[in-house]
Request: fold
Amino acid sequence: MKIALLGFGTVGQKVAKILESRKNFYENKYGFSPEIVLVEDSNSQGYHTNGLNPKKLLERKEEKGDVGSGRKLDLNDVEFDVLVECTPTNLEDGEPGLSNILQSLELGRDVVTSNKGPLAIAWEELKQTSSKNDSILRYEATVGGAMPTINLAKDSLAGNKIKQIRGILNGTCNYILSRMRGGGLPYDHVLSEAQDLGIAEADPSYDVEGIDTALKIVILANSLLDFNVKYSDVDVTGITGITSEALDLANEENRVIKLIGKVNGDKLEVGPKMIPKNHPLAVKGTLNVASLKTDLAGEITITGKGAGASETASSIISDLISINRVRNFR
Reply:
């Protein structure tokens, strides 16, 4: 499998490192022989039809800050089987990820992505382009890091009708609320602490205002419930208004406050909710949790790490192996 890897930040680098270090394991266990032929970061590109050396790529990125000195090639001029799209999420227009993904699908190439923007902005266009060109589009890494929510629903729960989806889908918010409650600390103090630990970004608004969770809810609603919704269709409230006093009041009622994303009927919402302390959704720290209510299997709940380079790379590689199986079967 020849891979074009666009986006060589933390996640892209982790994917390259794992594919190199586990090459023999993947070949022996899955018959999966990945070969990165193209790598692109924000200002450079490396390409070789016979494959690039991931170790040398990582060394160059660390030493020089780029992945190559050659001119940037258009995907039309690259020989590859699968695009791995790891560029940053852009909520405004989904670019450059949206164009990268559409072009690959139009070329009849498969796509694995961790980029939420294109899926939240242009789901129907991506779905139709994938179908028209017999291309496979996989995106487990866009929701819940290593938590296999989408593949669980599409594979293990195939034959079920999913009636409701809800969950904690942002580790930053969950850490802040857990820490505020556990330490009796104010929001600003815990946010600063989370930033020092690398759990929250320097500009945390994307997480704490509920935007990230809302994008994930849109992706789940569209892909699992056959909706055609966008971010603007979600009723969103973040956690910036949560006080220590509110958490104390919830505690007196044997409850906790969590930022919950939910799809129920035709309503999509994200906001702080009080739930019982012993509820399956009441996970602590940076953990994520998703609960799928089905007509046959009942309610299925899964928990896992929702962020982190290794966790996101785990989902990307799982999708690559899945595509390899499908292509070999065909």
Observations:
- The two ends are 15 Å apart (CA to CA).
- The chain has a mean pLDDT of 94.
- The chain has two domains: 2-145+310-329, 156-306.
